[in-house]
Structures
1.
Amino acid sequence: MKKILIVEGNLREENQSFSTAGIQTHTESLKDSLAFFTDKLETHVVNPSSDKNIDKNINALESYDGLIWGGSSLNIYNNTPEIIRQIEFMKECQKKIKKILAICWGMQVAVTAAGGEVKKCTKGSHKGIALDIEINSNGLNHPLYKNKNKKFNTPAFNFDEVVTMPENSTLLASNSINNVQGINFTAGDCNIWGLQYHPEITYNKMINLIIFRKERLLEKGAFKDQTEIDSHIEHIEKDNKKLDKISRMRELENWLDYLNLE
């Protein structure tokens, strides 16, 4: 049985607000998605921003076969103490764990810890859905995208993007909004597969997040009014009818196969 560490990227207060609204935390969504593929995982969860004694986990990191670091509503360039704690913990993980799947915020933390750079998106944002992600020639030959359609839509929620990849990086997939949608890079002996989108989260949850964050999204100009929100949700619902569960989660399945190689 493989042992993996799951890192929760959201602050505890954000997760409490999710639960109050009846929305799964990102860790809960991830656990459900993992359980779809296997019941042969031992999983532990940490929250570097909110766990008071996170440093006590560092010595145990070498005992894990892999790590999955999930999403968050944080913006890495704000450089708050909570964000700094996550970056520093990621640096330790990259020293001691050999296989990391970094999803959305997790990818941004992993890239930053390895010397890359993340900034606010200049070409737009993804609000529940990312359209027309295309796998390049490197990606088509990478195990991350085995059996994945060359071009696809997927659940996604991000306003920031990787603008500088770390050394030893290979770009695997892009779309018109984010050049870096899929990436593979190494940090020492650690092999990181990074995704800017969310194969582990359903469109239904993304719609619930839009509703949950409605006031926030209107304030930041992501939508101009309720009519635009309703239209966008309708668009996601239509795409949801076309996307089957296994195709959506193919990257997660492929990482689990990679985890079990040794």
2.
Amino acid sequence: MNSMRCQEIPLPSGGVLDLSGPPLVMGIVNCNGDSFYPPSRALGEAAVERALALAGEGAAIIDMGAESSRPGAEYIPAGEEAQRLLPVIEGLRKRSGVPVSVDTRKAEVARLALDSGADIINDISGFQDDPLMAGLCAERGAAVVLMHKQGVPRTMQDAPLYTDAAAEVYSWLAGAARRAEDAGIRRDSIILDPGIGFGKRTADNAAVLFHLAEMCRGDYPVLVGLSRKSFIRELAGKPGRESGGGSGEGDILAGTLAALAFCVMKGASILRVHDVRETVSLVRVLDGLMKGQQADGMVSTA
């Protein structure tokens, strides 16, 4: 880990994200009806209950999004996005202080979300889609996640092309971080996300993850969001779109956990996932093994 990297990310509420220990788990709540994994979808009070359940399972952050970014998804108006999102943030804030991340690429939605109690703006465009986003986040002291994607969700998987996926993604993210700092965002408020599955083929995703340690040794903490994505099925030899249950459910969960374990070993700081309980267990076990610890009541013979 880079010794220059801050171990605490300040939040607008006055709290912090503590990154000095094992990776934090970010639980996903999709406030829409078309995100690719159906169990993650919930609206209104059901979304608040899902967020509370994920926090109870050990999620250190709840990530809410009202606009699907699955391959083929369409852009929705800011008003519609805010209408789905704001009651959920406000409802959660009445019952929990868990940090809230909002997955949006629109400054208008981000402003309203921050007004409602959000702490982090998770922009899948890395501030490229809305020129007002960076200035807003700087003004409000929001923590930010800057993600790499090639293209737009509607067409991003049609024909993605890289010469060296890892080098190109990491170079782009370094530039995005510099632009964020130039806009007035504090260095210790920036998190980078390589955007697994966003305009990337299976080989591109694998290459980016293989070189993840190089990115994790840099100046910014790294978030990885690969939960249940199609490249995992392909690596497991079971291609096909995730349906949310039935045949292959165990394969996609096991594959996801294997990929997450790989990311933990490479140094990821935050894991964005659908399956919080299982991921928290994975992180705790890996952390114990990496520290050479034994289970309670057992004496090490090392």
3.
Amino acid sequence: MRDRIQKEISLYEKLNILSDAAKYDVSCTSSGVERQGDGTGMGNCLKAGICHSFSADGRCISLLKILFTNECIYDCKYCINRASNDVVRTSFTPEEVCTLTMEFYRRNYIEGLFLSSGVLKSPDYTMELIYATLYRLRHVCNFQGYIHVKAIPGADQRLIRLTGYLADRMSVNMELPTAESLRLLAPHKSRKNILEPMRFVQEKMKENRQEITLYRSAPRFVPAGQSTQMIIGATPETDYQILRVTESLYKKFDLKRVFFSAFVPVNEDKALPAIREQGPPLLREHRLYQADWLLRFYHFEADELLDEDNPNFNVLLDPKCCWALKHLETFPVEINRADYHTLLRVPGIGYKSAGRIVKARRMGSIGFEDLKKMGVVLKRALYFITCGGKMMHPVRIDKDYITRNLLNTKERLPEGSDGMTFRQMTLFDDMNLSGVNVK
């Protein structure tokens, strides 16, 4: 039996190790609840008080984001904390997590806690430690700020229920979009073990809403809802498959958010894709987030955005522009007559600006200058709208023409329009290069 030399690790060293180990878990959020403190403890959950900041690689760091432990009994091939990896292992104690949370909060570094974990010994053992941590934080330290916690798949439902009454948001990570992908890269996990706690949290939330209707003083169970995360690019699923799974999770499990995490190759394994040269698929992740926004706020269906014949997004254009270019027969839309849902389908018009348009036109006719003040992105919208029956510039409703102009990121009027273009002059602008295309 191999001897193992252990040394005492300071709290600061633990924080460095376990905060770094948590950076790949993007499923952290701090919105969706407005629970005020009662004046006897520290912190509150007012949405206005929850700030967001981001690290250089785009990860959210507004909460104290840590793992309880990076020890894990599982050997997921994509995970830096997999059991077979030779990394420094450590764990917090419940007291240490509470100390860090309270001291960081007192210094105004954070507005809440995001606590995830590897699986130490067993799901039940880990979930019990997480529950003990939250119980101490709420009832001993009297912390009334925001807490987002991970439910450990396979843990006893009683522990998940007790923890849910102490947390504001809870999440169970899907990890990978399909059961086949789990079998390939995370054989110790199963779709059933992931979906069961997700369903349990959903049902308990529904029961709790009924309890609160009858008894206003009833304790709240996961009042900010639940979320999940999927790794993108580690397995060969198309954007269409991922979006269908996302839509199903929203409809069947009432999730607040589905997060996407671009696959980062931290391990060497023949089952993992070799993407070191091109790097993580961050632009693909971005397009999926935009499509997710369309599902949640713009009343789109997954089958409208993609299909079997066109299973992946064009990474050069946002998903709404892609949809509009495939449905040019519905454009241009008259701003002064189109209903709210039609306005939502216009590239450059958000759900807030669509609401402003509907309200403003009750007072009179709307022009392009008005749209600009309402927050409409005219450099995209101008190809798809009219105001008073007129377009902003003489443009053609032609797929190639519009695509070419949308891909032109320089600030200029549409190609072929009269008037001055807002484009930086180049060395060749005033040169007579007949027969040479320099654009």
4.
Amino acid sequence: MNGYILRRLLQLIPVLFGISLVVFLIMALLPGDPALAILGPYATPESLASLRNELGLEEPLWRRFFIWLGNVLQGDLGRSVALQRPVVEEIGERIGPTLLLAAAALALSVVLGLGAGVVAAAHRRRWQDQVLTFLVLLGISVPQFWLALLLILVFAVWLHWLPVSGMFSVYAGGGLIDLLQHLLLPAISLAVVATGVLARLSRGAMLEELSQDYVRMARAKGLTERQVLYKHAFLNMLGRMVPVIGLQAGFLLGGAVYIETVFQWPGMGRMLVDAISSRDLLLVQGGVLVLASAYVLVNLLADVLQHALDPRIRRR
């Protein structure tokens, strides 16, 4: 087990290097002058030259990359020009709300998605299976930002049940109930697509498990259908779904950009949108690098967990 983890950690080195290179090149090769975009059209030549020197724009591209990479390896992501504060501090304040939103959406996706998949497989080709399959296809097809706007319209504007935006109420807020009320709509909007994916894949995996010999043996021993489903088939199916759940967790981190913008959620997504608008290069590079690294690490954790849960994987 330790050897497997060590091999996977070593495999992360070229992956993270490639991520850092792609992130840097995308921002560095964007058209236009970043200094002019930050300071505006009325900036003086002296201030533009000073900012270009501060950002290192006068250096060759390859040298700028290795200087930035060296600083990253030391935990220094640079300083945000627009916010006038270290990028690490800004990300440190923003990463918590994003992780909370992604975790809430993932919990909803796992519970609803796996539950729907098991129910659909247990009632194959019956009305329950057809209804759930239709809902799954509908959930996968609906754009997240459109669903978010629809939920705001119905539950916040029309019914006044839930708040429109933010993480806490401006007045008399800050408690757990207030946080959950603000979290519900963004989490549902973010979780819909992942729920559909998990439901569809878990249905197929559950049907495959139900066709195995050990299931027929369990039924022959006189076990009830509920025991066969949940004590045997479901547990084996769950081990196969762990990597898929890990992938969806990564997608939820990336999809939070849209949802946080719609709901004005104070997380990494909203920070990146603002940073891109102001051409804050170091803040964008640092934010994207952190999210991409989190995506890779979550999938590594999912692979390690599957390796620990499924003995068939350990024998390979």
